[in-house]
């Protein structure tokens, strides 16, 4: 006979679940609306998603106040962990989603947006990512990761082109492999310590003085591979360019930001305790991974002929750059990661949105991919404003001051310097120089080559008011980031520092 | 009235460029000239308001930008930056005014105005990050000018220009972050203010490393041998206006930064590297002079002679005494005026014949007498003839370095004199003798628009050559304070000895009278 379990509702602290639940409720209500009355216009679903995301944001802002006053909050059998990292990353996830969802109101019809399921899946995915970052329980991380990934595979496939199916299947296969690695890694950790909570694993490992170091290394190896796939670190990056190429440009931009920040947070929670506890091997492997990811991706990006593939490799390189923060592991570097990524949201989404507005339904004769460099030749003559905006995002990605990403790079390299990683700082700086070349290549095409007259009507063909507003917003933030950086940095540093990272 | 004049100077052209997007294409030239003229007038007001007797920075403005990381919008000028700013606004004005017929003139003029913002910004910035912002930002308009209006190889040239300087400045950025980190270690607060950094005394080995990091950024910009390979391409492909601004102002950013950053922040490292840098400078002077002699394209002759003279500027800077540094700052102005004028003169011929080959020229003096006269004056100035502006700067630079090393100075001095040969040889080939090329027989002499640009340059060349005091005095006052700071900060006895205390020297000099 089992004892009746007696738990007071207060101790569950159900409020910690509220942001994810808002997203789930949003998804369910979209599905029920479709049940009651089908065939409604996509703008309705976009606005409903936006409203629920706003509610989600409101809940998160409430957490910000709560965290400032009371510090870290645990809930739901201590599985939920709402600390500064969780709140910050959820803010990035939700704000990026709010910027992304209006991009579906394009002027050309792409049929995935006419399915209400698209929006429901989208909101499910967000809740998955939110679960993933707001816990240090390896099982819940896994559940969140899989919820989000499965939804994302479907979103890619819904673009309904042969390349999209290829992309979705490729991503699914790689994702399944990563999930397997993750499960193995967690299993070994559980076998070693009898716990699935990251902080307890760390305590138990430290208490027994890393006596089973061989098993720890096996577990860490599996985990590195799993996150390598999710963060597209070299050599686990091979899926990235193909998947980005197969997805719509807007979704590719989204994929380069949101899944990665979620994975960064988990990696930060997991690897930093291990790096700091003196597993030298891990530090060496991480160091090598960061350097190779940055450099190799940059070199591959140099030889791409399609802008979207170039941006895919560039986002791999940026992920490597941000991963350096986890290697360095100081409060300054962790804050640097969040600063970098918040600025990256606007710049990178802006760049991908610029591809999205230039997306035509059918390929022209002689055009082998959606966005070859030649398509942008002489854009400044035909569409000066579009060319200037695109150049702005490219300059920001290259780290030319005073635009957005420069400040992220400055702070990240600064944290490498003060963390004692001199050589790493130099490598980061030199990689920015290499990256300068391929961003410049697009600028050269747009500003210095003769336009291809036959394609004159193909620019901005997909533009609509909502797409233009999102691009405008991204551009404004990128240009005036100099004003934003100080409050952002103070906020981020306080959140990260008070979470103990 | 002078409270915010530096900010106005920096941002006025950028704001005007933004508004300029609205201006109709046919009226844009007038608009550009008007804006550049106002900007030039403002810089003259700045000169008027500048008090030469005050030591230290003037017209300072400060505004917290990213206070969490110690970054402030901090601007101010002293005698060293004042005249380069005036030079920059002056060249933008005459550059726009003398602009020939070009495609997409509106884009060109707005780009020039943006470029003017970055140029003024670099020379007024007293915060390393603000300096870096303008320094990097200046690459973008120049990239566009070379890449969109240049010759057949323009894209290669513009990307080469961009990537070389970009790489160098990223290494410099790491150096700046280290400097800020050491400041943070010493004081507990973050700061990127150059004035705060001046107060930091670093051990010699750190100084050497940081000096090297900064050196990459500056040396590529100057450009010093062996980093100079981007410059001939850039000059060869750039349109006239691009070459003029590049030679007159943008290259000066590198030599200016040596005086502003490297010397006062790392005095011991400066002494440590004095001889190697002097040797590089002399190689630069001799080698580029020889290359210039072999060129068949008159623009390349001017380009290599410009690099050659930059070597003298660097040599003077690393004399590490008041004469040498004042001379090199003065030579920055002089070199700007003279090589800017020479590029403009080459452009005059290019506009008429669309060629720059020396073999196409010959006997031009009889066809275009005014042109030949102005060209002759500038060639003399470039060769360093007494009573021209270059002579004052070169003489002082060499005099300064003579106190450090006799042999190297004699070598450099001889090289300069021998270097005059190639300029005179090119001049003879182009202008004297009989007209060999029929196409040259009917060329028009310089027209009014070109005279508007060239005559002021000739006047300045002669005026400052005969009477350099109004410019030289503020420069040498500011340089004196930098040198005495270096003397105080120097740790090693060798550095103390190499960098004489200018204050004491003055006192003994007065005592003797």
> pLDDT below 50 for ≥5 consecutive residues: which ranges of chain A?
none
Tally the helices of chain A.
21
Query: How would the global form of chain B be characterised?
Result: globular
Quantity of strands of chain B, as a count: 2
How are strands sequenced across the largest beta sheet of chain B? 1-2
Please bin the fraction of helical residues of chain B.
over 70%
The oligomeric state is heterodimer
- SSE pattern of chain B: HHEEHHHHHHHHHHHHHHHHHHHHH
Description:
- The complex is a heterodimer of chains A (501) and B (513).
- Chain A is an all-alpha fold and 501 residues long.
- Chain A has one domain (10-498).
- In chain A, 73% of the residues lie in helices and 1% in strands.
- Chain A has 21 helices and 2 strands.
- Chain A has helices spanning 9-12, 18-36, 42-70, 84-100, 116-133, 138-157, 162-193, 198-207, 213-231, 239-246, 249-255, 258-276, 280-302, 307-328, 331-357, 379-382, 384-398, 404-418, 422-448, 465-479, 481-498, and strands at residues 73-75, 80-82.
- In chain A, helix 11 runs antiparallel to helix 15.
- The longest helix of chain A has 32 residues, at 162-193.
- Chain A starts with 8 loop residues before the first helix and ends with a helix.
- In chain A, 59% of the residues are buried.
- The model of chain A has no long low-confidence stretch (mean pLDDT 89).
- Chain B is mostly helical and 513 residues long.
- A two-stranded antiparallel sheet of chain B has the order 1-2.
- Mean pLDDT of chain B is 88; it is low at 507-513.
- The longest helix of chain B has 34 residues, at 154-187.
- Chain B has a domain at 287-467.
- Chain B has 23 helices and 2 strands.
- Chain B is globular, with a radius of gyration of 22 Å.
- The A-B interface holds A 380, 395, 400-402, 406-407, 410-411, 413-414, 417-418, 422, 425-426, 429-430, 432-433, 436-437, 440, 443-444, 447-448, 482, 485-486, 489-490, 493 and B 64-69, 107, 129, 132-133, 136-137, 139-140, 143-144, 147-148, 154-155, 158-159, 162-163, 166-167, 170-171, 173-174, 177-178, 180-181, 184.
């Amino acid at each position: 006979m089992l004892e009746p379990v007696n738990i007071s509702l207060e101790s569950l602290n159900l409020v910690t679940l509220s942001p994810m639940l808002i997203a789930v409720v949003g998804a369910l209500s979209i599905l029920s609306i479709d049940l009651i009355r089908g065939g409604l216009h996509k703008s309705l679903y976009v606005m409903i998603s936006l409203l629920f995301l706003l509610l989600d944001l409101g809940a998160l802002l409430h957490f910000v106040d709560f965290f400032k006053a009371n510090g870290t909050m645990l809930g739901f059998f201590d599985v939920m962990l709402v600390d500064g990292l969780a709140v910050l990353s959820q803010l990035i996830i939700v704000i990026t989603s709010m910027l992304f969802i209006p991009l579906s109101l394009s002027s050309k019809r792409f049929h995935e947006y006419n399915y209400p399921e698209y929006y429901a899946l989208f909101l499910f995915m967000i809740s998955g990512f939110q679960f993933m970052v707001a816990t240090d329980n390896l099982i819940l991380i896994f559940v969140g990761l899989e919820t989000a990934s499965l939804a994302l595979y479907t979103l890619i496939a819904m673009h309904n082109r042969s390349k999209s199916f290829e992309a979705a299947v490729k991503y699914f296969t790689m994702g399944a492999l990563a999930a397997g690695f993750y499960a193995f890694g967690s299993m070994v950790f559980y076998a070693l310590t009898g716990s699935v909570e990251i902080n307890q694993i760390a305590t138990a490992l430290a208490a027994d003085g890393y006596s089973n170091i061989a098993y720890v290394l096996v577990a860490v190896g599996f985990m590195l591979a799993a996150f390598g796939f999710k963060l597209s670190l070299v050599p686990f990056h091979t899926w990235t360019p193909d998947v980005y190429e197969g997805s719509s440009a807007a979704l590719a931009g989204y994929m380069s930001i949101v899944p990665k920040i979620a994975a960064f947070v988990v990696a930060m929670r997991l690897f930093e305790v291990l790096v700091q506890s003196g597993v030298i091997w891990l530090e060496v492997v991480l160091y090598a991974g960061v350097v190779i990811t940055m450099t190799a991706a940059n070199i591959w990006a140099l030889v791409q002929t399609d802008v979207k593939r170039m941006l895919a490799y560039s986002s791999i390189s940026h992920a490597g750059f941000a991963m350096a923060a986890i290697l360095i592991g100081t409060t300054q570097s962790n804050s640097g990661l969040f600063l970098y990524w918040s600025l990256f949201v606007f710049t990178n989404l802006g760049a991908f949105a610029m591809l999205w507005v230039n997306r035509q339904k059918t390929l022209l004769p002689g055009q082998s991919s959606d966005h070859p460099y030649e398509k942008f030749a002489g854009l400044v003559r035909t569409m000066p404003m579009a060319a200037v905006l695109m150049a702005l995002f490219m300059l920001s990605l290259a780290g030319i001051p005073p635009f957005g990403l420069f400040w992220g790079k400055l702070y990240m390299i600064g944290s490498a310097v003060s963390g004692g990683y001199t050589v790493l700082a130099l490598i980061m700086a030199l990689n920015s120089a290499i990256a300068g070349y391929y961003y410049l290549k697009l600028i050269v095409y747009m500003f210095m080559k003769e336009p291809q007259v036959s394609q004159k009507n193909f620019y901005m063909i997909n533009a609509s008011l909502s797409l233009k507003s999102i691009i405008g917003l991204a551009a404004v933030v990128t240009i005036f980031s100099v004003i934003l950086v100080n409050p952002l940095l103070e906020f981020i540093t306080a959140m990260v520092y008070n979470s103990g990272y | 009235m002078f409270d915010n004049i530096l900010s106005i100077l920096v941002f006025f052209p950028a704001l005007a460029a933004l508004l300029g997007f609205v201006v109709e294409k046919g009226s844009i030239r007038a608009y550009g000239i008007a804006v550049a003229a106002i900007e030039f007038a403002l810089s003259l007001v700045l000169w008027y308001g500048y008090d030469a007797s005050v030591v230290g920075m003037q017209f300072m403005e400060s505004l917290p930008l990213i206070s969490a990381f110690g970054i402030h919008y901090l601007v101010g000028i002293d005698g060293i930056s004042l005249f380069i700013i005036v030079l920059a606004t002056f060249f933008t004005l005459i550059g726009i005014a003398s602009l020939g017929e070009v495609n997409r003139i509106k884009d060109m003029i707005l780009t020039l105005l943006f470029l003017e913002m970055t140029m003024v910004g670099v020379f007024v910035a007293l915060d390393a990050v603000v300096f870096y912002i303008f320094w990097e930002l200046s690459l973008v308009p120049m990239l566009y000018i070379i890449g969109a209006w240049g010759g057949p190889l323009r894209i290669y040239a513009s990307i080469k220009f961009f990537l070389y300087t970009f790489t160098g400045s990223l290494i410099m950025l790491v150096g700046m972050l280290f400097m800020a980190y050491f400041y943070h270690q010493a004081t507990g607060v973050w700061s990127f203010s150059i004035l705060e950094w001046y107060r930091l005394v670093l051990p010699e080995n750190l100084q050497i490393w940081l000096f090297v990091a900064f050196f990459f950024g500056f040396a590529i910009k100057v450009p010093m041998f062996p980093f100079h390979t981007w410059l001939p391409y850039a000059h060869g492909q750039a349109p006239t206006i691009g070459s003029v601004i590049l030679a007159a102002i943008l290259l000066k950013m590198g030599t200016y930064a040596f005086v502003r950053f490297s010397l006062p922040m790392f005095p011991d490292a400066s002494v440590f590297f004095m001889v190697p840098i002097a040797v590089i400078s002399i190689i630069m002077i001799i080698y580029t002079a020889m290359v210039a002699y072999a060129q068949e394209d008159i623009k390349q002759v001017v380009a290599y002679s410009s690099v050659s003279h930059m070597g003298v500027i660097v040599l003077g800077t690393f004399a590490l005494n008041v004469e040498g540094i004042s001379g090199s700052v003065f030579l920055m102005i002089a070199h700007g005026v003279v090589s800017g004028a020479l590029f403009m003169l080459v452009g005059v011929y290019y506009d008429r014949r669309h060629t720059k080959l020396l073999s196409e020229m010959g006997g031009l003096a009889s066809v275009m007498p005014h042109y030949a006269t102005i060209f002759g004056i500038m060639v003399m100035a470039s060769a360093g003839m007494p009573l021209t502006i270059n002579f004052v700067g070169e003489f002082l630079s060499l005099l300064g370095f003579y106190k450090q090393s006799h042999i190297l100075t004699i070598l450099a001095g001889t090289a300069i004199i021998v270097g005059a040969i190639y300029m005179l040889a090119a001049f003879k080939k182009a202008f004297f003798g009989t007209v060999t090329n029929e196409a040259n027989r009917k060329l028009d002499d310089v027209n009014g628009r070109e005279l508007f640009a060239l005559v002021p340059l000739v006047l300045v060349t002669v005026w400052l050559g005969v009477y350099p005091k109004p410019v030289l005095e503020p420069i040498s006052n500011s340089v004196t304070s930098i040198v005495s700071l270096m003397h105080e900060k120097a740790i090693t006895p060798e550095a103390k000895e190499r960098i004489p205390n200018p204050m004491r020297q003055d006192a003994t000099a007065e005592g003797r009278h």
